[in-house]
């Protein structure tokens, strides 16, 4: 692995340039108030579920692929993903007319695998640990081409940061923005964009109780591993650790992380479906669950609904389980 340049926080000019670069590929998603009818703060949903791949990853993927040199593109691209980053890179690669391979976590839902294949990606399945190690090593046996890191990539983060600009432009009075934490590319990007326009807005992460290295890292003041990690339906967020480089990206941007239970995630999925008629996957509901918990303080709060790629049968089972929990 070659020596990497230190992580770079995108400037306003770089984020604006990324926005122009990806304008023809992404959707400027709406932000809708969640009329939850509960004793909870004012919550607005940034619906990244309405992107062409139904997830925010198209922003970073499109910008990262667009910034590759002709030589890098000629070798094709590959990435590592539980499903959404793979779709983002595959979509951008298809638009650019170059081949794409995705090393997919073997527990990724069939829905996400099928959608990546439909976008022309070659799928190589691997265990979670192998994928997590490959993200750190930036290499995987038998896979060639130009690697596009799914979160630790300056251009990927700048693409994600366009989301932050949209939030502040559409809701200038926002007090807190919450996003899921997986690898950290979403929150460090969104936070960078928000801070450029509204430096006093709080930026909080949201993680499931089964995979919360971010909260542990903020508690300890350094990047941590989460030893009690478990695989759950929240497959698009919640890693086993916070990479030191991503911890560096979060400094001066992220104010902390809220840990929510799996039951709170299920209930958030149900509330969004009932009140908004919007389907969000487990990772996409983390921010909503954190906002509804009251632990993010007063509103207005923007919860970034990061994705909606979930099998409909599984979605139905989860929200019905939420109903049972309340009975």
Account of the 3D structure:
The protein is 44% helix and 15% strand. By secondary structure, the chain is an alpha/beta fold. It folds into two domains: 12-55 and 154-326, Rossmann fold (3-Layer(aba) Sandwich), CATH 3.40.50; 58-147, Rossmann fold (3-Layer(aba) Sandwich). The strands form two sheets. Strands 1-2-10-7-8-9 form a six-stranded mixed β-sheet, sandwiched between helices. Strands 5-4-3-6 form a four-stranded parallel β-sheet. The longest helix has 17 residues, at 154-170. The mean pLDDT is 93.
Secondary structure elements and pairings:
Blueprint: H1 12-22, E1 31-33, E2 43-47, H2 57-66, H3 70-74, E3 77-81, H4 84-96, E4 100-105, H5 110-118, E5 122-126, H6 128-137, E6 146-147, H7 154-170, E7 176-180, H8 185-197, E8 202-208, H9 213-220, H10 244-250, E9 256-260, H11 262-276, H12 282-292, E10 301-305, H13 312-326
Parallel strand pairs: 2-10, 3-4, 3-6, 4-5, 7-8, 7-10, 8-9
Antiparallel strand pairs: 1-2
Helix pairs in contact: 1-2, 1-7, 2-4, 2-7, 7-8, 11-12, 11-13
Mean pLDDT: 93
Named CATH architecture of the largest domain? 3-Layer(aba) Sandwich
Assess the beta-strand content as a share of residues. 5-15%
Major sheet: size, sense and barrel closure? 6 strands, mixed
Q: How many DSSP E strands?
A: 10
Q: Could you say which structural class the secondary elements and strand pairing correspond to?
A: alpha/beta
Number of domains: 2
What kind of oligomer do you see? Answer: single chain
Helix content: 40-55%
How is the largest sheet built, in terms of strand order?
A: 1-2-10-7-8-9
Radius of gyration, in Å, reads 18 Å
Q: Which residue ranges are poorly predicted, with pLDDT under 50 across at least 5 consecutive positions?
A: none
Do you know the CATH topology of the largest domain? Rossmann fold
Quote the distance from N terminus to C terminus: 54 Å
In N-to-C order, the SSE pattern is HEEHHEHEHEHEHEHEHHEHHEH
Count of DSSP-assigned helices:
13
């Amino acid at each position: 692995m070659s020596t990497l340049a230190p992580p770079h926080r995108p400037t306003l000019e770089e984020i604006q340039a990324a926005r122009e670069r990806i304008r023809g590929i992404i959707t400027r998603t709406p932000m809708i108030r969640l009329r939850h009818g509960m004793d909870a703060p004012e919550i607005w949903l940034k619906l990244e579920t309405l992107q062409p791949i139904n997830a925010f990853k198209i922003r970073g993927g499109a910008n990262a692929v667009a910034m590759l040199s002709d030589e890098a593109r000629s070798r094709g691209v590959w990435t590592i993903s539980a499903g959404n980053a793979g779709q983002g890179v595959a979509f951008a690669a298809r638009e650019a007319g170059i081949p794409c391979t995705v090393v997919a976590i073997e527990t990724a839902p069939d829905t996400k695998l099928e959608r990546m294949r439909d976008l022309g990606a070659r799928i190589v399945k691997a265990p979670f640990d192998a994928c997590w190690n490959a993200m750190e090593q930036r290499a995987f046996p038998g896979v060639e081409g130009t690697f596009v890191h799914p979160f630790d990539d300056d251009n990927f983060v700048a693409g994600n940061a366009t989301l932050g600009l949209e939030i502040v432009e559409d809701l200038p009075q926002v007090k807190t923005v919450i996003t899921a934490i997986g690898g950290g590319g979403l929150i460090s990007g969104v936070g960078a964009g928000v801070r450029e326009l509204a430096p006093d807005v709080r930026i909080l992460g949201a993680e499931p109780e089964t995979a919360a290295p971010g909260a542990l890292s903020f508690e300890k003041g350094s990047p941590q591993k989460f030893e009690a990690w478990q695989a759950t339906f929240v497959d698009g967020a919640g890693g086993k650790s916070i990479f030191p480089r991503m911890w560096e990206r979060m400094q001066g941007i992220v104010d902390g992380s809220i840990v929510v239970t799996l039951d709170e995630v299920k209930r958030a999925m149900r509330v969004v479906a009932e009140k908004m008629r919007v389907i969000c996957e487990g990772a996409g509901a983390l921010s909503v669950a954190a906002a509804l918990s009251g632990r993010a303080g007063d509103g207005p709060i923007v919860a970034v609904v990061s994705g909606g790629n979930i099998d409909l049968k599984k979605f139905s089972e989860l929200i019905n389980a939420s109903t049972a929990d309340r009975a």
